[in-house]
Amino acid sequence: MVNEARGNSSLNPCLEGSASSGSESSKDSSRCSTPGLDPERHERLREKMRRRLESGDKWFSLEFFPPRTAEGAVNLIS
User: Fold this and answer.
1) What Gene Ontology terms describe what this protein does at the molecular function level (predicted)?
2) What is the C-alpha to C-alpha distance for residues 72 and 27, in angstroms, rounded to an integer?
3) What's the pLDDT tens digit per position in 9-38?
4) What is d(CA 26, CA 19) in angstroms, rounded to the nearest whole number?
5) 28-59: b (≥16 Cβ within 10 Å) or e
6) Contact 14/36 with Cβ under 8 angstroms?
């Protein structure tokens, strides 16, 4: 199901330690590029999913994670 996140900054590592000393590696800091969940939109999505499940319609959910490197982009389109 969908992760529950209701304004709790401890669930979003990007919000914790945002004033860090800069000692974190670039790999760790790159993980904070995803914005936090908007609670209003989150509820709308859950409601849409519930309606689709109740209606018996066949549906799917697709998540796309863009490649992080040039080599990953080449692999994606090859």
Assistant:
1) methylenetetrahydrofolate reductase (NADPH) activity
2) 16
3) 444 455 544 444 455 455 555 555 666 767
4) 15
5) eeeebeeeebeeeebeeeeeeeeeeeeeeeee
6) yes
Which residues are catalytic, by number?
Answer: 63
Where b means 16+ CB within 10 Å and e means fewer, 6-15 reads eeeeeebeee
Residues in the chain: 78
Contact 32, 13 (CB under 8 A): yes
Higher pLDDT, 29 or 47: 47
Whole-angstrom distance, CA of residue 31 vs CA of residue 24: 11
Which pLDDT score, from 0 to 100, does residue 6 have? Answer: 45
CA distance 21 to 28: 13
CB neighbourhood size of 5 (10 A): 15
